Amino acid sequence: STEGEECNLSDNNAYTLDNVKSEDFARFLWVFYDPKYSLYEAPFETWLSVLQPAARWSFCNVKELTVHELEKIQIEPVDKIAIYHEYSIDKLFLVPVYIAVCKKDKPLTFTEGMQLMMDTILRVVVVEVGTQPLVDVASSI
Length: 141
Hints:
The chain is mainly α. The protein contains nine helices and no strands. It has helices spanning about 5, 20-35, 45-55, 60-70, 75-85, 95-105, 110-115, 120-130, 135-140. It is elongated. The termini are far apart.
């Protein structure tokens, strides 16, 4: 028998990762093998690719690194809220984002609402309505 077969490491017994794209897995591994040693420069899409397996496989340090790097990137407020909720990222990071959403001149669009969970939508609407003059609220009913 060959060496790989003795260790049960043949192609016929390969370990597969379900629901993980090879590109996302390569990006995840990049975090560990970056020769610049913690000097990371990557776009939003790369960090989102790293966040997905880090959260799924409970790589807490990688998840923290990902959040640290995402915080440096300008992300649309509703997108950021949806992503941080999906991956159970500390909600304290979202306080300024919620404030920005509630202070917008325009209410949430239908598309933005579809990205958020119902409890988030209701809280934003309550704050938005609470900051409008009573005449505006009455006319919107």
